[in-house]
Amino acid sequence: MKKIINEPAAVVAESLRGLAAVHADLVRVSYDPDHVVRADAPVADKVAVISGGGSGHEPLHTGFVGAGMLDAAVPGPVFTSPTPDAVQAAISATTGEAGALLVVKNYTGDVLNFETAAELAAAEGLDVRSVVIDDDVAVADSTFTAGRRGVGGTVLLEKIVGAAAARGDSLDDVERLARRIVGQVRSIGVALSSPTVPHAGEPSFDLGDQEIEFGIGIHGEPGRERIPAESADALVERMLDAVTGDLPFNSGDDVLLFTNSMGGTPPIETYLAHGIAERLLADRGIRVTRRLVGPYITSLEMQGISVTLLKLDAELAELWDAPVHTPGLRWGI
Amino acid sequence: MKKIINEPAAVVAESLRGLAAVHADLVRVSYDPDHVVRADAPVADKVAVISGGGSGHEPLHTGFVGAGMLDAAVPGPVFTSPTPDAVQAAISATTGEAGALLVVKNYTGDVLNFETAAELAAAEGLDVRSVVIDDDVAVADSTFTAGRRGVGGTVLLEKIVGAAAARGDSLDDVERLARRIVGQVRSIGVALSSPTVPHAGEPSFDLGDQEIEFGIGIHGEPGRERIPAESADALVERMLDAVTGDLPFNSGDDVLLFTNSMGGTPPIETYLAHGIAERLLADRGIRVTRRLVGPYITSLEMQGISVTLLKLDAELAELWDAPVHTPGLRWGI
Amino acid sequence: MGCDAKRVAEVLRAGAATVADHKAELIDLDRAIGDADHGENLDRGFAAILSTLDSGVPETPGAVLKIAATTLISKVGGAAGPLYGTAFLRAATKLGDRSELDAEAVVAGLEAALEGVVARGKAEVGDATMVDALSPAVEAARQAHADGGDAAAVLGAAADAAKEGADSTVPLVARKGRASYLGERSVGHADPGATSTALLLRSFAETVS
Amino acid sequence: MGCDAKRVAEVLRAGAATVADHKAELIDLDRAIGDADHGENLDRGFAAILSTLDSGVPETPGAVLKIAATTLISKVGGAAGPLYGTAFLRAATKLGDRSELDAEAVVAGLEAALEGVVARGKAEVGDATMVDALSPAVEAARQAHADGGDAAAVLGAAADAAKEGADSTVPLVARKGRASYLGERSVGHADPGATSTALLLRSFAETVS
Ligand SMILES: Nc1ncnc2c1ncn2[C@@H]1O[C@H](COP(=O)(O)OP(=O)(O)O)[C@@H](O)[C@H]1O
Ligand SMILES: Nc1ncnc2c1ncn2[C@@H]1O[C@H](COP(=O)(O)OP(=O)(O)O)[C@@H](O)[C@H]1O
Ligand SMILES: [Mg+2]
Ligand SMILES: [Mg+2]
Ligand SMILES: [Mg+2]
Ligand SMILES: [Mg+2]
Q1: Tens digit of pLDDT for each residue in A161-214?
Q2: Which of A136, A230, C14, D60 could form a disulfide with C207 if both were Cys (CB 3.0 to 4.6 A apart)?
Q3: For the structural domain made of B13-170, what CATH number should be given?
Q4: Count of other CB atoms within 10 angstroms of residue D104
Q5: From the alpha carbon of A110, which atom of ligand 1 is closest?
Q6: Dist CA A227 CA A273 (whole Å)
Q7: Hey, what CATH topology would domain A185-321 get?
Q8: What is the secondary structure of A53-90 as a DSSP string?
Q9: Active site includes A57?
């Protein structure tokens, strides 16, 4: 393992120190339990939008704290859900009368820990709701499993829901909006290499020189199947087929296309893949009217990309366009 | 070699297609010869700021085209300087009475090709100047060599000079400012892994499991020396020593600290390294008053970071803060 | 002879040592079908239990287990944190303020722990989770108690059954937790949480006897 | 027998074939001490020369070389593009509108090429660049001409000397171009540009004779 780190156990806190130094105008970082809140938190009369999960996916979630997006983020250890007390600290620092929405990616650990935190907050009289996002079409959706993972759609959900909260929507409305987005966003990811968890010290999986892990998650969990390396054209088409085969995106639909680097894939390849996806969607009559390209939900240094499609309507597009000012996403301000 | 690409020869054009699709509001992309210009080019009565060089360093330079930064960028093949006719096309599309400044990284190929283009433009009666940036302290500066490479400082120079041109500075002033920045910016880079040039198909260098290439360039050229892998604390200190040992940054100085990912290093590590650099500089009484952290000048999928220090004064800080709206850098708009 | 609070603290210390010893093995199991953190997560939690116990052991076994529970909940994270935390919490609650644990109390504690894990995680036997170790452990404990065994015998039987249960996850298709994303590809691997449950019960049994 | 425009076009075609054949080798040399693109760069340029020549060959050797020059300048990029381009451009200019090239003309062309490369790149013999191949090639060509050799003999001598010159770069510390960043670590590697110069001259010589 070669990484620019000191002790594996210190990675998250030391990285947070960098974040705090660079973005002191945007975020306030607290340690032990680790949580990151807006510099101006709590914002009066506003629904707090809070998320979190294992670290190693930056800028998700800590890099999305700021005006127009998250009020707080709770980073756990690398690939490990944070504990309820950390989530509770984030809730306390940001949540007032208007209540809070917890955005939870669908992993057993995240669901259990956030659930516990929400119970604790409710016991203190706060109105805290949760929405679980599970947009990964790689995993068969079945009541006999843990269900689908939350992946790239989380970024889009946090931006849009954050904008709704910023314009003053009620908790009921924000929650309803979040559930609506969960219903119309789908993702698929691929890996060209494995991440190495710092305390594990070895790659999470071995991939042959001519192999791609198709349907990879964001934790180095093995994917749906292993396929031989293929051209970007073929790979992106396979990815789009997986997404549109799941939730039918139809000719005439307006969509947001999000092409994400998993951390180790550089811009030249991410943009190349995005260009292909644009062409293939245009061929199907699906209209890409908003886009996001870059490393926004990473998996440590894993090479690979994911593609997320969100069906848009006028409201979602407007909320997407609304100003946002966070370490990881900024426009209009 | 595993990459998300089709034919190696098509990588640059296909990646540009992605850029064009995502940022049609900001840039206009032309092919063969490849060049990227501001969507609203030419901007009347403004000095055009133009840069370019081999591809594989994105967002540099194509991702820095837009309001407040570059008027045009000329991407060559991967790691290969563009040809004079491509540069000339970019000059023609953007340059009027106010003239143009070419920002050239100090590589023999870039210097020769941009020089030729500048001559051709002069022959057409345009006032075109060049500034060569050579901020890499890894290379001994000597008249017996090609001199120092242009690396991370280029990003800062393009932003600041772009802001000066945007506020209406004359070509003389813009050129003088650029030379001033070249005099007070220094960088150093390290690699934890090698990039693979698409048409070469194999890593540019081999690095042992416990080795770091110290003083790496941005083209997979081997660096200054090979050192055993070490803690982030030790590595970042070694990097800062190399920089401040070259151009004395003194206690009380205001600086911009730019911690750059070389492409394959994810945010969690880049921020961690940045946090360490902040602490070490504070220990020396050097005041970090502006910062930039992320993958801004990459070397394909190479893992590694670079650190750049720019001595600031009120004017440079103000120009740094000025609004910018490009695919790769955006604030205030 | 029963088990007082001091002995329960020793049991937990032994568990912490076991987790530390097997940390790499648990990481490896989780790397194969999960995200390579189970050993690290548990070790972080049990190390924290150790330092809490160093600053004083409360009066009753239940209070000691409650400390373990809250420490695990606030230190482990992931799926294992809430699940193990709930297990210890339910056992602690069940044991109330008894000052010593006999065989019957051990059975009751294990039963409560299993109920807690199932209540939180909704897994059934055969889903390839820690339930596959804990559920047969409870059965075996009940049987050992019925057969007149003491606390040590009950824990020993539970540990044996848990080990068998953990091994039984190897040929299974995981249906809960992260390994379930793998579908058929989860076959051929022991579940990390079932394995850690068996290891912990073994070290508890050895410390009590 | 001299060399007319058609023959010069053949010479360039042969050069293009040589570059294509040695593309991987030139990439490997450049990977060792540069950025792994020299073979790709030259091949892109010479392939473009081929397709330009396919659409018609001009009347004079000078005009053919000028096409090669402008194609290289607009297709190769990097350091090699302007350097090779300038070399061909200066040779073309020097040869003016002669219809055939004799030994003297070949020498004059090579001299002009070398002057062009030095004017642009400012390298001296011993800096480990293409100048280390081209400079002895010019000397050898002059000598072969003085000894009464024809155009083929002159080019053959130039090719031999260029090969020796390219080999001579192996023990040198590079002082120009990308390899110079390596300092002492550039020792032990042949310079890619010197190697391609020697390969091209060899194929030119073989085509003419
Ligand atoms: N729903 C569940 N019910 C019972 N046990 C579960 C459940 N989900 C996961 N587990 C257990 O948790 C273990 C994984 O723990 P750990 O690796 O620490 O958490 P994570 O999966 O969040 O990384 C699995 O091996 C399994 O035994
Ligand atoms: N200043 C110079 N003078 C003469 N030849 C040079 C000079 N700089 C570089 N070269 C030649 O160019 C070759 C490299 O060409 P190439 O790899 O195509 O360009 P780049 O170095 O820009 O990648 C070197 O091997 C060397 O022979
Ligand atoms: Mg985990
Ligand atoms: Mg090059
Ligand atoms: Mg795990
Ligand atoms: Mg080269």
Answers
A1: 999 999 999 999 999 999 999 999 999 999 999 999 999 999 999 999 999 999
A2: C14
A3: 3.40.50.10440
A4: 12
A5: 22
A6: 18
A7: Hypothetical Protein Tm841; Chain: A;domain 3 (3.30.1180)
A8: EEESSTTTTGGGBSBTSBSEEEEEEETSPPPHHHHHHH
A9: yes
* Alpha carbons C152 and C140: distance in angstroms, whole number: 13
Length of chain C, in residues: 209
Burial B253-274 (b: 16+ CB within 10 A, else e): bbbbbbbbbbbbbbbbbbbbbb
DSSP of B194-256, one letter per residue? Answer: --B-TTT-SBSS---TTEEEET--SSS---SEEEE---HHHHHHHHHHHHHTTS---TT-EEE
Quick check: is A219 catalytic?
Answer: yes
Does B221 sit within 8 Å of D34, measured CB to CB?
yes
What is the pTM (predicted TM-score) of this model?
0.94
Looking at chain A, the whole-number percentage of residues with pLDDT higher than 90 is: 92
Q: Domain ranges in chain A?
A: 13-170, 185-321
Helix axes C103-121, C131-146, angle to 10 degrees: 160
Average pLDDT for residues B226-236, to the nearest whole number?
97
Q: How far is C146 from chain A (nearest CA, A)?
A: 35
Give pLDDT tens digits for B46-62: 999 999 999 999 999 99
Ligand 2 residue neighbourhood (C-beta within 6 Å) = B 80-81, 108-109; D 30, 34-35, 37-38, 41, 78-80, 83, 117, 121-123, 129-131, 176-178, 191-194
Ligand 1 proximal residues by C-beta, below 6 Å: A 80-81, 108-109; C 30, 34-35, 37-38, 41, 78-80, 83, 117, 121-123, 129-131, 176-178, 191-194
- Nearest atom in ligand 1 to the alpha carbon of residue C81 is 18
